[in-house]
Amino acid sequence: MTEASRTPLLTAQALTCIREERILFDELSFDIHPGDIIQIEGPNGAGKSSLLRILAGLSRPYAGQVHYCGERIEDVRDDYHADLLFLGHLPGVKGELTAEENLEFNLKIAGYADAPIHDTLAKVNLTGFEEHPAGHLSAGQHRRIALARLWHTQSKIWILDEPLTAIDKRGVQELEQLFMQHADNGGCVILTTHQDLQLVSGDRLRKLRLDYQFV
Ligand SMILES: Nc1ncnc2c1ncn2[C@@H]1O[C@H](COP(=O)(O)OP(=O)(O)OP(=O)(O)O)[C@@H](O)[C@H]1O
Description:
Blueprint lengths: L2 H4 L3 E10 L2 E11 L4 E5 L6 H8 L7 E6 L2 E2 L4 H6 L1 E4 L11 H11 L7 H7 L15 H9 L9 E5 L7 H16 L3 E5 L12 E5 L6
Bound molecules: adenosine-5'-triphosphate (ATP).
Adenosine-5'-triphosphate binds next to helix 2.
């Protein structure tokens, strides 16, 4: 094992999250290393999205810390966000823009102004839909526009909230292959999904289950 793979990319240290007087999780601790693919499981409302948002630094835990390469994320916010790709529960696609305008906008914001937009839309099976307003596309096609940026990012840490929702079987397999390739290249993927992964399994996959806890 190399030094790099021993150093956690992310560490959750005794995270506690309380929402509306309900403990979603309490003193939750785990490390995430380069090469890890982690699926957060649990029923609706168990706190999966809340955990992802805390890991991404978008909301604060009631108690506990998140560390990026050994530093508190609050102390290295810019470095952390440069190394993080977070895709939230809702695809964040603007209905009045076309598929290509949405992707172009997302990639520009992420600093990839020269990315080949049509080739990238082809990777997510949106050839022929480039100039359609996103508002006229299906839920799965919306998510595909949002997911297309995964093909260009250099961020090592991918935090993805339900990336497979509304994606068809072949699309799920392509995404799972991309996750494995990213992990093989030293990245990590932390995702929630209510479906069983087909290709990422066995030693490739770590599962973390959240369940209801009541105060
Ligand atoms: N900002 C907030 N303020 C108050 N309550 C919140 C907030 N965010 C989430 N909650 C509550 O916390 C609980 C967990 O929500 P969360 O979205 O983390 O669950 P989840 O496991 O991702 O659910 P799902 O599988 O349905 O997406 C829910 O009961 C929700 O209403």
